[in-house]
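Appendix B. One record, verbatim.
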Amino acid sequence: MTVRKGEAWGEAGGLPAEGVVVSGDAEARAVVTEARRAGEPAPPLGLLGGDLCRTLGGRGDERRLRSDTGVRVPVDLCSVLVDGRQHWFVAHLVARRGWWRGRILAAMNAEFLGPWDVAPRAHPGDGLLDVLDVSPAMSLADRWSARSRLGSGGHVPHPAIAVSRRRAVQVDFDAPTPVWLDGERVGDARRLSVRVEPDALVCVV
């Protein structure tokens, strides 16, 4: 069930027999993609690392994942059409031609992107994406300043960074723009159509 304020989220329990242990977000995405392309639901995932794991408070302890001290949580899965081709991601989408110039788009299911606290309000069980859209007009000085505050989440609010919480978002770019899903580049795109699939994945931490 999608998390609601004041209500319990998740339950105690280890990874079931059909579950798959993954070391990070890219590996989780690969497992999900294989299942979805075969027309099957994604298996439960035991998270040992990655930005989704960190957001969920995971400890990277495989023994815990397989014991009753683990915690099972329903997690949103994200689907994206990259110029019409479907992909999935578990933690984040980033589209950019560079960090220091041009537009940057981040669609966050997790709070973190590597060492950065990109989306302090993001929750992977709320049925929403936290979308940050950096204006191409943002100056180099402001980008440098924002980057220096990313570790603590202090880069927002900023007038050149539009922040929204969405169930779905469609974005058009002026030119082909590189796209990364869970840290892996999947190609270039002029159009992205992203949506959340609430509670489509079970994770154990």
